[in-house]
Design a protein that fits this description.
The structure is a homodimer. Chain A is α+β, with helices and mostly antiparallel strands. Chain A is built from seven helices and six strands. Chain A has a three-stranded antiparallel beta sheet. A three-stranded mixed beta sheet of chain A has the order 5-4-6. Chain B binds a DNA duplex through helix 2 and helix 4.
DNA sequence: ACAGCAATTGAGACAGAGTCTCAGTCTGCT
DNA sequence: AGCAGACTGAGACTCTGTCTCAATTGCTGT
């Protein structure tokens, strides 16, 4: 609980610094995000808050998410779907994702070896990196044991397409 | 030129195998893609073809792109924007991307060291990888020399947001 | 050449995520 | 109290992508 208050204070600090205000709506949203969700989607927040009878419009959610991203407390990521996902940023929390194309589950990992190698590559290309985004798509252990065959690399994207149409 | 014909033949092979037909529209699209574009967006193709007075509908473009992805000749990637990008797949062409958040330019690279390390990580997590997607966002050499300051890691996403609004 | 038939096409409706506008509200300040 | 600027919700709007459906194309066998 006090963790959440700390996050709210942190956000308030950012807002004040920008001459902005910490409103009830913004507070509710930060509370919702930092209480339970690790990865989430904008729509999901809208739904969860409506469930709790907290009134907040879609526009405000998007506006506040933008502020949270600007403040560095939240990150916007792609997880292989056709819309954004967001995730909380906590200290030293940088990580990448393994995304199961069968069940959709997400495994996080961090590897300083990978990070270091990426820095080397950037140096060689005279590129100044600021952020990166790595998803590895495949089949998780549970799904493989249930008999999912690993698909050939060229065909994963087909699955992605199929999953997209399944969502309807 | 003959390279393009080879690609068309390749696509035709895939289509026949699936009991599908190589139509005029599909041929035009493959020609457009393999003639000039390396990374491209669906809308861009629509525009370019209209410019050349080649009539082809949006639906057909998306349908054909789906087939090209299924055939393994084209790959669908995220480059840090809110819609898909596509890229041609040529033999052994797997690579990742450095994306400049200032000018939007894309540098490709391939590093077998990174690839190997990723395989190790997957093994450790009992994850069967099939495909991955890595973008490193930052500032390219040209932009840095023009005086662009490298932004602090936490702020890149803000730039992404700003670029999105610029598109209007 | 022609009938039959499945694949294909374009137009336009539709869907979902995200953005923008605008009028009304809130808040802090003098 | 009055002002100014930040904030909000409702809903219109945009954009990418998908779907439907009637009309068309192009094989295939005769």
């Amino acid at each position: 609980m006090q963790t959440i208050d700390r996050e709210i204070t942190r956000f308030q600090g950012f807002l004040e610094q920008q001459g902005l205000k910490l409103t009830t709506e913004r507070k509710s949203l930060v509370r919702e995000i930092f209480a339970t969700h690790y990865h989430f989607e904008a729509d999901e927040l809208l739904f969860k808050l409506k469930e709790k009878s907290i009134k907040i419009s879609r526009a405000t959610i998007y506006r506040t998410l933008e502020l949270l991203v600007k403040s560095g407390m939240v990150r916007r990521v792609h997880l292989g779907e056709d819309h954004y996902h967001y995730e909380r940023v906590t200290k030293n929390s940088h990580h990448d994702h393994l995304v199961c194309t069968t069940c959709g589950s997400v495994i996080e990992f961090h590897d300083s070896f990978l990070e270091a190698r990426q820095r080397e590559i950037c140096e060689r290309k005279k590129f100044t990196p600021t952020f990166h985004n790595l998803q590895i798509l495949g089949i998780c252990d549970a799904c493989r044991q249930k008999g999912q065959l690993p698909d050939s690399p060229d065909r994963v994207q087909m699955i992605q397409l199929d999953r997209n149409s399944l969502r309807k």
